[in-house]
Amino acid sequence: MRGLEAEVERLKVRVERLEKRGRVLDEALTLAVLAQVGIEASVKPGLVESYSDFRKLVTERKQTYISIAESDPDALEGENMGKTSIEWTEYSWNPVTGCTPISPGCQNCYAKRIAHRLSQNPTVPHRERYEGFRVSCWPERLEEPLHWRKPRMVFVSSMGDLFHENVSFEVIDQVFAVAALCPQHTFLMLTKRPEQMAAYLSAGHELLWRRWSKAAVEMDIDAALWIPTFRGVDPPQWPLPNVWLGVTIENQDTADERVPILLQTRAAKRFVSVEPMLGPIVCGDVKGNVYRPWLTTAFMAHPTRLDWVICGGESGPGARPMHPDWVRNLRDQCVAAGVPFMFKQWGEWGVVDSLFGNVSAMHAGQLIGRIHDDELAYYAYPSTSEAIGLIEVIRKVGRKRAGRLLDGELWDQRLEVIPCEHAD
After folding, report:
1. Which of 19, 142, 164, 192 is most buried by a 10 A CB count?
2. Which residue, 410, 411, 414, 367, is CA-closest to 392?
3. For the residues 110-126, what does the mean pLDDT come to?
4. What is the CA radius of gyration of the chain?
């Protein structure tokens, strides 16, 4: 194992040098794979029999990672857990993977693409669990957060949906038990199935606390860890302060369907991830028969509100364009309500030019043309007169070039995390 550690350290130094020269892809991926395999090898000595076997395994994995990086930069999330490039979190933890399509936002699912690649890689342990992106549980991953001493913000099941219908409540009990045992970490649970989430939590804190205590025992977690936490019949705080619940939405229909259920579910913090954004979303309309006070607590009938709004365009193969005014409008709603707003990315399509032109007011805000097989699109915005309006040109330039700036400004607002000490 000293050889593995020395190799990782040597590559760390080399990567730092290469970064200064702008040459980092190949060696950085090598380092990532070395660290991943090295961790596994240290836990499971039988994974590789010799150092030469280890180097062969690294080479095979490295080629897989490079092919993924070249075709889809979003896909470098890894097959298990670790530091992630997702802007609104720090680490990912995948005790459950897999999902099934449920709405238009699922059309170009990044996790499904990654799962397919992993299922084809003979060096990935238990790769059959990724086949067909079927829902799979990974019991060997459940206790990983227990070994992280430094506080982390953790995205739970970035490669699936923890509240999928095929995930039993017993498995969810285990995930929540680990979260309860790790108050120093913040766990973000994001779903497209808030009704399943609400059904699970509707059991009430007393019953859930007993179930989580039972789950900790059944997972054979060291009694010194779980007894101090679960020794009482009631949780010390409810809902768990380090578990934030969220829903993914992509347009007004999915927002109207999922956000009200989320707001009716008890949680320390509630957030939405509007990604990919496929249409305009209104969160504060109380006119007529439409009642959406999701960003305010001014109405007694709805004493809760969203605590955080994340928004982003679609990336990867087949990405659909996002109207820039959809983002601006959502941002303005959040600013007016004092709710933190994060603009994660433009996605594959970015604004590359703007000009004034003859735009009929009746066409304001509509897509008015595409050129070169979806490589160029024009959007028209509300005009300043009947004849003149602003036209912005968006082009499929790639995620990196499109960037994260909205009207020249970085919107990176986050919720404050109050650090907690590990349970004694």
Report:
1. 192
2. 367
3. 90
4. 23
CB atoms closer than 10 angstroms to residue 12:
13
Provide the pairing of β-strand 376-380 with 388-396.
antiparallel
Does the bond joining 239 to the residue before it have cis omega, within 30 degrees of 0? yes
In single-letter form, the type of residue at position 332 comes to D
* Of the candidates 139, 215, 206, the residue with the CA atom closest to the CA atom of residue 181: 215
Q: How many whole angstroms separate alpha carbon 367 and alpha carbon 172?
A: 43
Q: Would you give the distance in Å from CA 250 to the centre of its chain?
A: 14
Position 260 scores a pLDDT of 94
- Omega cis (within 30) before 276: yes
CA 86 to CA 96: how far, in whole Å?
Answer: 18
Residues 6+ positions from 102 with CB-CB distance below 8 Å:
192, 193
pLDDT at 380: 56
Q: Which residues of 227-237 are buried (b: 16+ CB within 10 A; e: fewer)?
A: eebbeeeebee
Residue pair 272/237 in contact by the 8 Å Cβ criterion: no
Task: Name residue 279's amino acid.
Answer: G
Q: How many residues does the chain have?
A: 424
To the nearest 10°, the Cα dihedral for 411, 415, 416, 418? -150
Q: Would the pLDDT of 167 be above 80?
A: yes
Pairwise CA distance, residues 296 & 227, whole Å: 40
Please give the span between the terminal C-alpha atoms of the chain, in angstroms, as a whole number: 32
Is 356 within 8 Å of 389 (Cβ atoms)?
Answer: yes
Most confident of 8-22, 244-258, 366-380: 244-258
The set of residues, in sequence order, having a beta carbon less than 8 Å from that of 304 and lying 6+ positions away, is 263, 264, 270, 297
Are 271 and 310 in contact by the 8 Å Cβ rule? The answer is: yes
DSSP characters over 103-163? SGGGTT-HHHHHHHHHHT-TTSTTGGGGGGG--EE-GGGTTGGGG--S--EEEETTTB-TT
97: β partners: 136
Burial class (CB in 10 A: 0-12, 13-18, 19+), 66: middle
Query: HEC string of 70-91?
Result: HHCHHHCCCCCCEECCCCCCCE
Strand 243-249 and strand 269-274: the pairing is parallel
Amino acid at 245: L
The predicted structure's pLDDT at residue 1: 43
